[in-house]
Amino acid sequence: MSSPVSQESTRRRLTQQQAETVTRLTDAAVEVLNDEGFDGLTVRTVAKLAGVAPATAYTYFSSKSHLVAEVFWRRLSAGVGEPDLTTTPTERVAQVLREVSMVVAGEGQLGGAVTMALLGTDPDVEHLRLRIGGFIRRRLAEALEVEPENPGPLLDALEMIYAGGLVHAGMGHMTYEQTSERLVAAAHLLMEK
Asked: Which intervals hold domain HTH tetR-type (predicted)?
């Protein structure tokens, strides 16, 4: 059964058959990334592996960066749940940061590719970048029990921490597991002041 996220695309709402095609393309993109890296990834190569005509693939994804950003968005929205409101705010923030940082852990070259893709200028990537940032902001706001539109300096600081941590991990300076530990430690330092 498809999740709501699998039924939508950056460009339009999808039918069940279209959603299945997009899923095949995103799954194939991860395979190609693991074999060829971001430099070797092309929409055409992904389309071939997914058994989809290149022209069809381009109707869904404007570029390889758009494709990789979509992979990340789908994993993020599926992998970062609502904070457990029965725990303390610090534990909830730690939960969100841990889940955000572990979305691409153990995924080979996907993390580095996501970093490169999200820094691109493709308008479809920009749309996803805003969606991703808004999603993480809402999860952190829920953890802090504040409004995302009027968050205060703590939420702003937490956003800076996770963004820097994920870029650092995406550049290969540390693993996503190490990043997760450091993000949680940084959140504890901020929240316990």
From this structure: 19-79
Sign of the dihedral defined by the CA atoms of residues 159, 100, 122, 124, in that order: negative
pLDDT > 90: what percent of the chain? 74
1 falls in which pLDDT band (50, 70, 90)?
very low
Query: Could you tell me the pTM of the whole model?
Result: 0.88
Averaged pLDDT score across all residues of the chain: 90
pLDDT at residue number 135: 96
Check if the beta carbon of residue 18 is closer than 8 Å to that of residue 6. no
